[in-house]
DNA sequence: ACCTGAACACCGTTCAAGT
DNA sequence: ACCTGAACACCGTTCAAGT
């Protein structure tokens, strides 16, 4: 259903070892490449959001014709897939060998994950649809390893992983879109006071005004980690 | 930014008490109405998914011209907003007065919430973007009341509510899209075995094959509820 | 008050070529 | 191997009318 995972190279796999991997024009211009396309797509998504990524716009930024993209990429879907996974590449190796402090590792990994998604707000809403990129799977693998070393039995592993995943994803998706839709706080306030008599408890606890997202995230995460079944 | 909340009636609020609320043609045809539009939009979304909702298609189903929709509705965004909130209307009053068994109430409410989103998979991905519909707010209010009666202090309420919200939303979004993208299990299996040596822990725990979604959801939820700070 | 068709601006992608 | 312009099918919405 999704585009075949053939690396996105060539039109219907007519990639037959290629004559020469010239790569660059003599003129000096970098020419088009998958890497440039993906990097520029991420830029565009960061700048304009998920609806701002248009093939024509992407080509413009790359100084190419629209249809040039289609040699490197099967369709727009594939651009999304590649941009998403690109964002989840590791920077520093998370392999700190302090086997005793697993909890610090887990929190660090999840906060890094969340930070990435907040830096690229489009990624949170894209992630659940295409969670099988190499970097995303790599992060799930590392996470599993850490939990395993921390004493989580294989039988409990999936509940642990999915609970954490669900929580982080939900928190980020919600935060990213609240930050957006409440950009104009004026309208938000008006809405809220009009609501106060219909939703007294929400009004009392200021549910929709509490913007300590980081603190709230961390506290809920602690609850989840406290409850992790470990041998 | 979002469409003004004027009930979606009339073009730029030229709703001036209206001459007569005729409503029906003498011919018998129900004619167009906001309710019919929203109900049909939900049908269409259920049948064709989020990308299947096109204004022309919606009009077709209603036996009307496309542009007729725009008298009742400002734009496509508003159709999404209304369809989303419509789906979260209450059926049975959840006001069971058993103050001692708050936990059963909470679990029931959250499973009902999740069931709705799984019945209308498009709703999960739409929800975070427009969480301020009346029915959604009503559910958050009821939830807060139950937790409050259960002994959760106001100071802890937002962490509790958001943790549960994040978890339910993340779980549903993930499940809905996995169910979709793995519709063809054949491709999924192939992908997985190709991956087995690179992601041994994932392979060992069968993370991506474990399809006991309901059990996993419930267990993670129990962890969260166990950890709820109550006076 | 309510509905409509024609038309516009825009977008992803196919095709048949170019070098 | 790599890039391109013209053209097609499609979609949300504006506009100027109809009743």
From TrEMBL, chains A, B:
Keywords: DNA-binding, Repressor, Transcription, Transcription regulation. InterPro entries: Homeodomain-like_sf, HTH-type_TetR-like_transc_reg, HTH_TetR, Repressor_TetR_C, Tet_transcr_reg_TetR, Tet_transcr_reg_TetR-rel_C_sf. Residues 1-31 are annotated as: Disordered. Pfam families: TetR_C_1, TetR_N. Residues 31-91 form the HTH tetR-type domain. Residues 54-73 bind DNA. Residues 1-10 have a biased composition (Gly residues). TetR is the repressor of the tetracycline resistance element; its N-terminal region forms a helix-turn-helix structure and binds DNA. Binding of tetracycline to TetR reduces the repressor affinity for the tetracycline resistance gene (tetA) promoter operator sites. PANTHER family: HTH-TYPE TRANSCRIPTIONAL REGULATOR RUTR (PTHR30055), TRANSCRIPTIONAL REGULATORY PROTEIN (PTHR30055:SF151). This is TetR/AcrR family transcriptional regulator C-terminal domain-containing protein. It comes from Ensifer adhaerens. The lineage of its organism: Bacteria, Pseudomonadati, Pseudomonadota, Alphaproteobacteria, Hyphomicrobiales.
